[in-house]
Amino acid sequence: MTTSTPPQVTWARADARRIHRQFLAEPTDAPPATVAAAMLGAHAQVLSAAELSLALRMTEGTRADVRAALWEDGTLVKTHGPRGTVHLLPAADLPMWTGALSAIPTGANPMPPDVRMTEEQTEQVLAAIADALTDTELTVDELTDAIVARTGPWAGDRVMEAFQDKWPRWRQITHLAAHRGVLCFGRDRGRKVTYTNPGVRRAEGTAALGDLVERYLYAYGPAVPRHFAKWLAAPVGWATELFASLAGAGRIEEVEFEGAPGWVVAGDTEFPDERPARGVRLLPYFDAFTIASQPREALFPGEAYGRALAGGQAGNYPVLLIDGTVAGVWHQRRSGKRITVTVEPLKNLKTLNPPSATRLRALEAQATRVATILEGRAELVVGPVTVGPHA
On the CB side of 288, how many CA atoms lie within 13 Å of its CA? Predict the structure, then answer.
């Protein structure tokens, strides 16, 4: 009996493949929804950052194209995605996302006992949300009234501590309603957020989770269960069992990744030659690549680990990507049509600080691209970034 040796994958090869599949090596002519699918969603807690994440991967896309996909043709949906945080997801993938996210086990309820809802109350509120938001868009206050009318005053009790205020009880399950597929964001009404029902039919949970693992590994593999669990804010033990079941079904296979086991989609073992991904990229707050790509120590080497991560949390700084690894931080400030892009390279990267003429031209091109996406005029400054991390 013979056993085959798993393919050996280095960080440089894995990183280069991820960058290629993220459209960071070569931007694509594909529409925003296709780009969002490749990224597994664009983090949209700061919507302008999500617009940049998507458009930077497009040949000529701007924030207007992303907004059109979101609010006009409906190919993108703004909703609560991985980790319960707000994302832009492809509408076509919403059955998979809602099926998978609603099947992730939840931990203990963090709310105080007098704030929590029972399982029966939770289901009542979910049904009320689904009914109230069908074919309409409601503000939080309007939705609260609609839920109370369908359930009872307890759902509207202002008992949740929130930003020096108190929110109604039902809002503790906002992200759960999104994961169940009965709530997503509608168009803002002035300064007020609205919600609507996307009208999606959830995929079956086990099948959806398998599909999501495959999509994750295609975009960010090789990876191990703890990487997948961290990306989803899910239990590691549960993720380990999920990977084992998919391996047993022949859907994923093991490779050797930097001397340790890693997983890829079955048969997806082709990687670029042994050379780093080339190029200069400016990635905004909470870009999917910086959040999902592991191991983080390799993506944020040396000084980058301390400068570009906020307490170990990726995404809190926009980052400068040089040849596939984080090489600095940056910030943009708008004044009328002028958008000043300040880039702070890291001192330990000899190829960049001081910037060579080639690197400087590449930075200028990226700053121009950022300004074009934001419908402004670029001004590049190479120097310290004094703005702190995003909270």
Answer: 34
Residue 348 has pLDDT above 60, yes or no: no
Q: Which phi and psi (to 5°) does residue 359 adopt?
A: -65, -40
Backbone angles phi, psi at 284, to 5 degrees: -80, -175
Indicate whether 189 pLDDT > 90. yes
Give the mean model confidence (pLDDT) for residues 53-67.
96
Pairing of strands 252-257, 8-9: parallel
**Residue 308 in contact with residue 326, Cβ under 8 Å?**
yes
Task: Give the span between the Cα atoms of 322 and 26, in whole angstroms.
Answer: 14
Long-range pairs of 166-171 with CB within 8 A, sequence gap ≥ 24: 168/144, 169/115, 169/117, 170/117, 170/125, 170/129, 170/144, 171/140
Q: For residues 227 and 45, what is the distance between their CA atoms, to the nearest angstrom?
A: 22
Per-residue pLDDT tens for 252-310? 999 999 999 999 999 999 998 877 788 899 999 999 999 999 999 999 998 899 999 87
Q: How far is CA 33 from CA 29, 82, 195, 225, in A?
A: 12, 17, 20, 27
The overall average pLDDT reported for the chain is: 93
What average pLDDT does range 359-382 have in this prediction? Answer: 94
Token code pair at residue 261: 């086991």
Mark 332-347 as b/e (b = at least 16 C-beta within 10 Å): beeeeeebbbbbbbbe
Q: What is the DSSP letter of 4?
A: P
CA distance 328 to 321: 7
Give the orientation angle of helix 236-248 with respect to helix 205-220, to 10 degrees.
90
Query: Are the CB atoms for 256 and 6 separated by under 8 Å?
Result: yes
pLDDT class of 80 with cuts at 50, 70, 90: very high
Share of the chain above pLDDT 70, in %: 96
Q: Specify the 3-state DSSP secondary structure of 14.
A: helix
CB 174 within 8 A of CB 80: yes
Quickly list H helices, 56-118. 63-71, 94-101
Average pLDDT over residues 323-335: 94
In Å, what is the CA distance from 280 to each residue of 101, 147, 272, 317, 376?
A: 34, 49, 19, 17, 21
- Which residues fall within 8 angstroms of residue 105, CB to CB, at 6 or more apart? 234, 235, 238
User: Can you tell me the distance from the alpha carbon of 388 to that of 264, in angstroms, rounded to the nearest whole number?
Assistant: 36
| pLDDT at residue 2 greater than cutoff 80 | no
